[in-house]
Amino acid sequence: MDAKTYSMLENYMLSCMEDSAHDKHHILRVLYTAMEIAETEKDVDYDVLICSCLLHDIGRPEQFQNPSLSHAVVGGDKAYSFLTGHGFPESFSEKVRECIQAHSYRKNSPPQSVEAKILFDADKIDVSGAIGIARTLIYTGQVGRPLYSFLSDGSVSSGKGDETPSFFHEYKFKLENLYSRFYTKRGTEIAKERQAAAIQFYENIFREVSQPYTAGAAALKNHIETGF
């Protein structure tokens, strides 16, 4: 891939980036991590990988407008149309589409090619550890979701089994479980190096938000009931 082609792909990617959790810097971190992982894998088509990394989140605007859509599916189709429309072979464009459509944690379409597996791992690494916590909190605020929800007894829910979307729910559903979902050896190693930071943050914030609803709430109830 020459510099002119890379610049064209990057400019198209930038035209589709609208939120700070999935911005240019997220894309570059994914790309750079993918390049590191690729050095430990065999028979990687670097042009397919680079293109897939650059364009993997271009379907985000459509998903923001209609949450029922999958940004991975939309993005794969957009990438295919863009690439074929700019003279890329259909076989190449289809490989990129398949990589993008298989990168979502929530879609039941596991990656098949080595390039798709590398993209999946690189993207999930950017939601692991401390950076994953930070990005998830940004996204939670952008879409108007709360940090946490409550159980029927009024205590703060850990997020496990919640139906109400929140940061704690996202942590329990995705962030806590992704470490067993990697496809490459190097991707697994990088993620495991970051895991402790995410666990520590979640445990600290859960403790800090839960405490006022126990001791403090009990003190308030006592004051109201007794008048003292």
Describe the protein.
With 228 residues, this protein is mostly helical. The protein folds into 2 domains: 1-110, Hypothetical protein af1432; 127-228, Up-down Bundle (Methane Monooxygenase Hydroxylase, Chain G, domain 1), CATH 1.20.58.1910. The chain has 11 helices and no strands. It has helices at 3-16, 24-38, 46-55, 60-65, 71-85, 90-101, 114-125, 129-142, 167-175, 185-210, 215-226. α5 runs antiparallel to α6 (90-101). The radius of gyration is 21 Å and the shape is elongated.
Provide a compact summary of the structure.
The chain has 228 residues and is an all-alpha fold. 64% of the residues lie in helices and 0% in strands. It contains eleven helices and no strands.
Main attributes?
single chain; 228 residues; mainly alpha; Hypothetical protein af1432; Methane Monooxygenase Hydroxylase, Chain G, domain 1; 2 domains; 64% helix; elongated
Layout of secondary structure:
Elements (H helix, E strand, L loop, with lengths): L2 H14 L7 H15 L7 H10 L4 H6 L5 H15 L4 H12 L12 H12 L3 H14 L24 H9 L9 H26 L4 H12 L2
